[in-house]
Amino acid sequence: MVLRGAGVVLLAVLLGACSNAQRQAAPEASLTPRDKKLLASAPYKKVLPPEMYQRAIVDYAGTEKPGTIVVDTDKKFLYLVEGNGKAIRYGVTVGEEGLAFKGEAKVGRKAEWPTWTPTPEIKQRLTGIPNFVGPGPHNPMGARALYLYQGNKDTLFRIHGTNQPEYIGFAISSGCIRMLNEDVIDLYTRVPQGANVVVL
């Protein structure tokens, strides 16, 4: 009976959290003319993730200071803490088990329409990977990248866009955090270099 009561309380908390989510598309104002042009010619299907993974303003009870990025890898959510008990929540793709970064870092570098040079480890795991991919919507890094550093050392983990929006909400990446291109552009405009990142 106690377990059943606890389950009802937990369910009520979860439903309450869902009902407090105010879903909002990423602002068009974040997109540059170049972004609009490249995204209009993206060589992948424009797929929206399930509603629960779409960008939303949510209640947030964590203790992190405003401007902190918090990634919940289990639930596939990235939060940008706003303060006053609120956060912007984005759905993400996270790393496969055993490949994901966990811990604290800082945004050590930012890039618009980044290039991609796969690491030797990625090339060993996946066949047919090129040595280099130039910028553009065909690039797995997508429209923006936030490079995670610990001290002065690049962790080789990124928060970046994707050319596979259908996988938002899944754990399939080689360790990086992937976001819809429109969402990562929005995050990029809000987060300065040096921002704190916590990956749970």
Polypeptide structure, described:
The chain starts with a helix and ends with a strand. A 10-stranded mixed beta sheet has the order 1-2-5-4-3-12-7-8-9-11, with helices on both faces. Strands 6-10 form a two-stranded parallel ribbon. 21% of the residues lie in helices and 30% in strands. The protein is an alpha+beta fold and 200 residues long. The N terminus is likely disordered. The protein is globular, with a radius of gyration of 17 Å. A hairpin with a 2-residue loop joins β4 and β5.
Distance between the termini: 32 Å
Quickly count the helices: 4
Into which percent range does the helicity of residues fall?
10-25%
Poorly predicted regions are: 1-19
The strand line-up of the biggest sheet is 1-2-5-4-3-12-7-8-9-11
Query: What is the number of E strands?
Result: 12
Taking all Cα atoms into account, the compactness measure Rg is: 17 Å
Structural class: alpha+beta
Q: H/E series, N to C?
A: HEHEEEEEEHEEEEHE
Oligomeric grouping of the chains: single chain
Dominant shape: globular
Mean pLDDT equals 88
Strand content: 25-35%
Largest sheet: 10 strands, mixed
Throw out a few tags for this protein.
200 residues; alpha+beta; 4 helices; 30% strand; disordered N terminus
Q: Which helices and strands appear, and what pairs or packs with what?
A:
Blueprint: H1 2-19, E1 22-23, H2 33-40, E2 56-59, E3 69-72, E4 77-83, E5 86-91, E6 94-95, E7 103-112, H3 120-125, E8 144-150, E9 153-160, E10 171-173, E11 177-178, H4 181-190, E12 196-199
Parallel strand pairs: 3-12, 6-10, 9-11
Antiparallel strand pairs: 1-2, 2-5, 3-4, 4-5, 7-8, 7-12, 8-9
